[in-house]
Design a protein that fits this description.
Helix content is 46%, strand content 12%. By secondary structure, it is an alpha/beta fold. A 6-stranded parallel beta sheet has the order 3-2-1-4-5-6, sandwiched between helices. Helix 9 (189-199) links the parallel strand 4 and strand 5.
């Protein structure tokens, strides 16, 4: 492993455990909004349907195929209709309640704090997130992550999403680094890994689900704790 000076992390699904936090949020909202009375009998089926739709829409958002409003207007409407609910019966306030509650959740992936504390003594750390400004700041501050990072770069503010090279160029300008001394760590092959590699920056694929790794991805980890051994 060559020597780096700057490490760039993704936030959602890499440090902040999006699926676990969303699960907790949806469990609460399922009861609060009495979804069972609307005919949705299984909270786990509801969460699984939402997760599938949300992941697909975020992929489109990363690639610039849809905007923020389309993502937010679509994910629960599609989930409810997929579950058999008539559009007129969809709770109007559900998306707003989710957006307000979910970023307050504080579940991180195992070893996040221990790993970042270790790395902070050796490297300058940054976040590059495709998340939205308000939610991203809530997540970072609410979990104590702000103490580790020199910069939190949010695509909504920059106006460019990963994997576009422009956000990596912006990150390097902000950090005063060159790409040869930087490495990107993230869970998204498209946004984080290929985005960085195509830009000319090294990348590590965070793969906690241990899915099959593409041959053209040079490095992967299954746990954040592994970074303490290789960096």
């Amino acid at each position: 492993m060559k020597r780096y000076s700057h490490i760039f992390f993704d936030l959602d699904h890499t440090l902040w455990d999006f699926d676990r936090n969303a699960d907790e949020t949806l469990q609460e909202l399922f009861v609060l909004h009495k979804l069972e009375d609307l005919g949705i009998k299984s909270v786990q089926d509801f969460i699984a349907t939402y997760t599938r739709n949300n992941h697909a829409l975020w992929t489109d958002y990363h690639l610039g195929k849809i905007d923020k409003e389309t993502l937010r207007q679509t994910r629960f409407r599609k989930t409810f209709t997929d579950m058999g609910l008539h559009p007129d019966a969809i709770p109007d306030a559900f998306e707003d309640a989710y957006v307000e509650l979910c970023p307050t959740k504080t579940n991180l992936f195992p070893y996040a704090h221990e790993t970042l504390s270790y790395l902070q003594d050796k490297y300058t750390l940054h976040i590059i997130s495709n998340g939205f400004e308000s939610a991203t700041r809530q997540k970072v501050c609410g979990t104590g992550l702000e103490t580790y990072f020199e910069n939190v770069i949010i695509s909504e503010l920059v106006g460019i999403n990963k994997p576009h090279k422009g956000i990596f160029e912006y990150a390097l300008q902000l950090s005063g680094a060159n790409k040869e001394e930087c490495i990107m760590i993230g869970d998204s092959l498209e946004a984080d890994v290929y985005g960085a590699l195509n830009f000319g920056m090294d990348a590590i694929y965070f793969n906690p689900l241990e899915v099959s790794k593409p041959e053209d991805v040079p490095m992967q980890i299954f746990s954040l704790n592994e970074l303490r051994k290789i960096l």
